[in-house]
Specification:
It is a single chain. The chain is of the alpha+beta class. It folds into 2 domains: 241 residues, 3-Layer(aba) Sandwich (Aminopeptidase); 89 residues, Elongation Factor Tu (Ef-tu), domain 3, CATH 2.40.30.40. It is built from 8 helices and 17 strands. The strands form 3 sheets. Strands 1-2-12-3-13-16-14-15 form an 8-stranded mixed beta sheet, sandwiched between helices. It has a 6-stranded antiparallel barrel with strand order 4-5-8-7-6-9. The chain has a 3-stranded antiparallel beta sheet with strand order 10-11-17. Strand 1 and strand 2 form a beta hairpin. Helix 1 packs antiparallel against helix 4 and helix 6 packs across helix 8. The radius of gyration is 21 Å and the shape is globular. It starts with a helix and ends in a 7-residue tail after the last helix. The relative contact order is 0.19.
Length: 354
């Protein structure tokens, strides 16, 4: 990954973007794609779209990623100045205690920690991890009045962890899910622009995926593309503590993961696999027998059915502050999207032969 692309990725990953509060992250994305897109726009809730206008009446393909990350919100401020929490999306109660967090208040960010009583003072025979609603943030306030000068109910909260380079091409950060997807669709659009492909190509950064695929439902109806491809992280199951029942074929560093079954339209799957093979892009397959759990599930039922596909980016330790990806996988996904955009007219119309 070259320096400008890495800077864009780092900007996305270091800009907090919890569900419902994606504006700052969307601004980073929009400023980047505006450099090469023919047009860029946003809707009422902050879904962002950039487009390469293809020639004539060619097919329209949308590559989408979601901008939001999981997190917390201030649910209540206690008499003694601590903050009680509620979850935003699928936040994991087992990794939250003892972590640095940032409360994104209106005036300025407020630093805090999710309290964890010292091991010396706990009953170790009863080391149950409390639900998020029973955990608390300590911002250093002496009482409720002092805390209310800093924050208010409804302020979003994220982990304070940032981007760290690991060995080789691997990096760790919170919020890989799914700023890496929005990076990939932006770069896929850039490839399509540089190749001046005949298809009309949209890159879409959606909001509120983590709380119900909400942005995809909005933009899928409004955009009405011929094809929608959702880029999202998927579980790399190659770390040693994954139970055998969940172990699958997905490995970090082995390339994009093309899902098959349920949501995933067979002709779009064929397009993705052919593009990967022709361009020499290593790829992996994944079974999605019921649903993908991504924005593709919202797109494929929109407007009577938009042929859709989920392409996964292998990710270890999902929904923790230390998610790990291989940037080579990320670059390969962007390359795959550029190759798919170029070949989309060859596979239209996207219908199932009966």
């Amino acid at each position: 990954m070259d320096a400008p692309r890495r800077e864009f990725l780092d900007d996305l990953l270091t800009t907090p973007s919890p569900s419902g509060f994606e504006t700052d992250g969307q601004r980073v994305w929009v400023d980047y794609v505006r450099q090469f897109a023919d047009d860029v726009w946003t809707d009422a809730y902050g879904n962002a779209v950039a487009v390469h206008e293809g020639g004539g009446d060619g097919p329209r393909i949308a590559f989408t990623g979601h901008a939001d990350e999981i997190g917390f919100m201030v649910r209540r401020i206690t008499d003694d100045g601590f903050l009680r929490l509620t979850r935003v999306g699928g936040s994991d109660r087992t990794v939250s205690k003892g972590q640095h967090v940032t409360v994104h208040a209106n005036d300025e960010p407020v630093q805090g920690v999710i309290g964890q009583t010292a091991i010396h003072l706990r009953n170790r025979d009863d080391d149950e991890i409390e639900d998020v609603a029973e955990q608390f943030v300590d911002v250093g306030a002496a009482d409720e009045a002092e805390a209310r000068e800093l924050v208010e109910v409804g302020d979003p909260v994220t982990f304070s962890s940032t981007v760290h380079d690991l060995h080789g091409d691997r990096i760790s950060a919170r919020g890989m899910d799914n700023r890496v997807g929005t990076w990939a669709v932006a770069e896929g659009l850039r490839h399509a622009v540089e190749a001046d492909v005949d298809a009309t190509v949209y890159a879409v950064s959606t909001v509120q995926e983590e709380v119900g695929l909400n942005g995809a439902e909005m933009i899928g109806f409004d955009l009405d593309p011929d094809v929608a491809v959702a880029a999202d992280v998927t579980h790399a199951t190659d770390n040693p503590d994954v139970n055998d029942e969940y172990r699958g074929p997905v490995e970090l560093g082995a390339g994009p993961v093309i899902a098959r079954g349920s949501t995933n339209h067979p002709r779009v799957v064929k397009l993705a696999r052919a593009a990967a093979e022709t361009e020499g892009i290593d790829s992996q397959l994944q079974a999605a027998g019921i649903r993908t759990g991504t924005d593709a599930d919202a797109f494929f039922t929109s407007r009577g059915g938009i042929p859709s596909l989920n392409v996964g980016i292998p990710n270890r330790y999902m929904h923790t502050p230390v998610e790990v990806i291989d940037t080579a996988d990320l670059v390969a996904v962007a390359d795959l999207f550029g190759a798919m955009a170029a070949r989309t007219p060859d596979y239209a119309p996207f219908t199932v032969d009966i």
